[in-house]
């Protein structure tokens, strides 16, 4: 394990280290600050120096097929949620791999896989968790930290240790059925109809989550029973509007 005061990104650093030598599975890199924290493609991750958790974990999931790789995202989300559940209520998983408290984002995850033939050769799981930051200055729409939720200063090392332990436990057990079930049960907006927008057509619609398939595809059901299928970035969950108001007009 390696902890450093600052790096460009823990994912980038771990990737570079893993190219130089064969690191053991479960190797962890953490930092107090990232100069260019990586979120999902096109996004960055804001984190005040020394306030939050920024870390990456190396795995060699060679027995997981490429079309099953979403299980790594699911078990990572579940590990984080299970730990945060011990500090507060209302923690959910926003498809595909953000962790939310109520309507606010507390944690982001970036998983980068190296593939060989039809298997995953190497997986780097990057996690940014807002722990003790109290003021957010970026244009991110809805960040929140554990301290903001609880009003208490948190022990970052303990939270990191607990997440690491829980993640590796779920990974080693690799109970596909259980992980997929628990992921679905803890989804943000799991119940009822909520507003979405199709990223390609810009169509607005109400739908409920029907399922998330093993490859990560989101299955939505509209009010008329029509099913829509989306992969990551193909659909966006919109904020719920006050009763009677529908995307800028009143009914």
Helices and strands in order, then pairings?
Blueprint: E1 2-7, H1 10-20, E2 28-34, E3 53-59, H2 70-84, E4 91-94, E5 98-101, E6 104-116, E7 119-129, H3 146-150, H4 156-173, H5 176-185, E8 194-198, E9 204-212, E10 218-222, E11 227-230, E12 235-237, E13 245-246, E14 249-250
Parallel strand pairs: 1-2
Antiparallel strand pairs: 2-3, 3-7, 4-5, 5-6, 6-7, 8-9, 8-12, 9-10, 10-11, 13-14
Q: Any overview of this molecule?
A:
With 251 residues, the chain is of the alpha+beta class. The protein has 2 domains: 2-185, Bira Bifunctional Protein, Domain 2 (BirA Bifunctional Protein, domain 2, 2-Layer Sandwich); 194-250, SH3 type barrels (Roll). It is 24% helix and 33% strand. The chain is built from 5 helices and 14 strands. It has helices spanning 10-20, 70-84, 146-150, 156-173, 176-185, and strands at residues 2-7, 28-34, 53-59, 91-94, 98-101, 104-116, 119-129, 194-198, 204-212, 218-222, 227-230, 235-237, 245-246, 249-250. The strands form 3 sheets. Strands 1-2-3-7-6-5-4 form a 7-stranded mixed beta sheet, sandwiched between helices. Strands 11-10-9-8-12 form a 5-stranded antiparallel beta sheet, with no helix packed on it. Strand 8 (194-198) and strand 9 (204-212) form a beta hairpin. The radius of gyration is 18 Å and the shape is globular.
Features of the shown structure:
251 residues, alpha+beta, BirA Bifunctional Protein, domain 2, seven-stranded mixed β-sheet, 5 helices, globular, disordered C terminus
CATH topology of the largest domain: BirA Bifunctional Protein, domain 2
Oligomeric nature of the chains: single chain
- Profile the largest sheet: 7 strands, mixed
Structural class: alpha+beta
Radius of gyration: 18 Å
Strand order of the largest sheet: 1-2-3-7-6-5-4
Total domain units: 2
């Amino acid at each position: 394990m390696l902890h450093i005061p600052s790096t460009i990104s823990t994912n980038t650093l771990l990737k570079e280290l893993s190219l130089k030598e064969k690191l053991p599975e479960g190797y962890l890199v953490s930092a107090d600050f990232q100069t260019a924290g990586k979120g999902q493609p096109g996004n960055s991750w804001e984190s005040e120096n020394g306030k939050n958790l920024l870390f990456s974990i190396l795995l060699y999931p060679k027995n997981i097929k490429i079309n099953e790789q979403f299980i790594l995202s699911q078990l990572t989300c579940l590990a984080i949620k299970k730990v945060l559940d011990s500090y507060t209520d209302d923690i959910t998983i926003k498809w595909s791999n953000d962790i939310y408290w109520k309507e606010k984002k507390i944690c982001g995850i970036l998983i980068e896989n190296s593939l060989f033939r039809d298997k995953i050769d190497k997986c780097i799981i990057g996690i940014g968790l807002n722990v003790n930051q109290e003021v957010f200055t970026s244009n991110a729409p809805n960040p929140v930290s554990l301290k903001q939720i609880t009003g208490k200063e948190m022990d970052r090392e303990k939270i990191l240790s607990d997440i690491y332990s829980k993640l590796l436990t779920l990974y080693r057990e690799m109970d596909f059925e259980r992980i997929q079930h628990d992921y679905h049960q803890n989804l943000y907006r799991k119940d009822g109809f909520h507003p979405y927008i199709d990223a390609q057509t810009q169509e607005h619609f109400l739908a409920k989550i029907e399922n998330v398939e093993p490859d990560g595809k989101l299955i939505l059901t509209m009010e008329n029973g029509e099913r829509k299928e989306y992969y990551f970035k193909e659909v966006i969950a919109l904020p719920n509007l006050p009763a009677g108001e529908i995307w800028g007009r009143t009914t």
